[in-house]
Amino acid sequence: GGRGMPNMARVKNKQPAPVQITAEQILREAKERQEADPKPIPSKITDADELAEYRLRKRKEFEDGIRRNRNALPLWVKYAMWEETQLEFDRARSVWERALEVDHRNVTMWLKYAEMEMRHRNVNRARNIWDRAVAILPRVDQFWYKYAYMEEMLGNVAGARQIFERWMQWEPEDNAWTSFIKFELRYEETGRAREIYERMVKIIPKMETWMRFAKFEGKYGKPDQARGVFERAVNELGEYAMEPELMMAFAKFEEKVQEFERSRAIYKYALDNIPKSKASELYAAFVNFEKQHGDREGIEDVIVSKRRFQYEDDLKQNPYNYDTWFDYARLEEQDGDADKVREVYERAIANKPPSLEKRAWRRYIYLWIYYAVFEELRMADLDRTRAVYKEALKVVPHSSFTFSKLWVLAASFEVRRKDLKAARAVYGKAIGTVPRDKVFRSYVELELQLGNVDRVRAIYEKMLESFPANCRAWTSFAELEQSLGELDRARALFELGVEQPLLDMPEVLWKAYIDFEIAEEDNDKARALYERLLERTSHVKVFISAAQFEAGAGDIQRARDMYKRAEKTMKDTGNKEERVLLLDSWVAMEEGLGEEGSVEEIKKKQPKQIKKKRPLQDAEGNNTGWEEYYDYIFPDEANTQALKILEMAQKWKKQKTE
């Protein structure tokens, strides 16, 4: 035979069995059929020989186990504790000592060793073990606690104190110092406890240790001593003293001893110096204090502080929220502390807008304006006011944009100070740097009030050089000359104005020029102006104005001729709405003439109003619906309309016959 694999039993039927069994069932059956372990037969030791044999056997087991694994510390513990149960203390000590040789840094070993001696009242031996333990592991607080506790339980207070003193030389954590202090207080040694606190705050200069010291003095000492501790804490901790817990404890102590003014001063000092994000509890405590002990003024002061706290919090999140700065400054102004108001304004104006958009600067510039108004009206400090305006004008990026209001306010301030030279200097700088219409007009108004006509003319000339398209400037300058009786100058200015190639509101200038000629009762010149204007524009209002002028001058025929000319122009241009306006005006004029008017003749020219529909289209040119609108059909168009309908009907009939 070959060395191949042995013949495996072949499964003939590979169909699944009718009854299936799971792994869980197999395990459950195995567990149910498992036989219980035989219990050891209890043996009773009846004589000394059996006891010696039992001890020998147990010791051999322990020793064999230790020999196999010398570092198995639980086995050492069991061995020593078994020897203790046999009252073989020397053997137990021997086991503990051997275990400590294996691992002398094991805390559990030392504890169990010392506890064994304490259980059996071997005090000196226990002391010996504790001494060795604290010498080898001085940073294990448990040894010191148990050692001191043992001595205290034995009534050896001096010994316990000596242990604590030895412990304190290692400068442990604050819990150790607190235990020492509690120990002294149990024996009413407040002087010793105070000395320990003094040493503690030097070694652990934390806020918590100072607060414990102050609480101790508040309970066992005099108020002056407790106050002294709080004051020393604030001085020695420096910036770390600015914690709400410490300041609140200090204030509540003063409140407790009826020193309300001191308490109020501490609260205010703390709220001024502690960051607002930390001071919410402190503030709540201050509010409660003022409600209990404050007068109306004190409570108002608290409300101000609360709002101040809220503003500071809002500004911390967004320093560019100028509305909050306005509210904050207004609050401080109502409070009346000038230094605080100035501080708020200075902080506010330090937050320049990050962008160079005029829109972003508008609110910011009002901060400067309010600041200047505060200095001038509330503080009457004119030098500071001038400095504020000067700095504000420096801050504005005039190359990008300017604020006419700021220039005008700065100049007006100098006028109020009766310093015309300084005011003119401000206006001159404004015009030289960034000429603006509002600045020119304000400057003109000032010089007019002073009666300096030559200066006014010079300003207007500069204004028209800067803004030749400004119709209001041309009109104002010409009206000034008219008021001075300089008609030729006024007329020359109007002529210069209307001849400008580009004007912002030409209709205003032309109307002013025509009104000027009418006021001077020179109808021919006014008529000539209307003709010149109609050469440039065929606006219906110009025609109506010209016709009304002729009617007002008493020349009805000229007026009618103007209306006829206008109607022909409107008809040619196809402006139906303007033609309707013209005919309404014409009818009104004819009605005003009474019997001489030919109203019916003009009314025959008026159109019929008809409602029509037209398709609505979206941006892509698709029809989206229909809208109704009104159209006008004039009498001279009606015949044409009828002919069009007749022509379309004939065309439709011809198509049908074909």
Summarize this entry quickly:
This protein is mainly alpha-helical and 658 residues long. It has 33 helices and two strands.
Question: What does this protein look like?
Answer:
With 658 residues, the protein is mostly helical. It contains 33 helices and two strands. Strands 1-2 form a two-stranded antiparallel ribbon. The longest helix is centred in the last third of the chain and has 23 residues. The chain is elongated. The model has no long low-confidence stretch (mean pLDDT 78).
Radius of gyration: 54 Å
What fraction, in percent, of the residue positions are helical? over 70%
Terminal residue distance:
115 Å
Shape: elongated
pLDDT < 50 stretches: none
| Total count of helical runs of at least 4 residues | 33
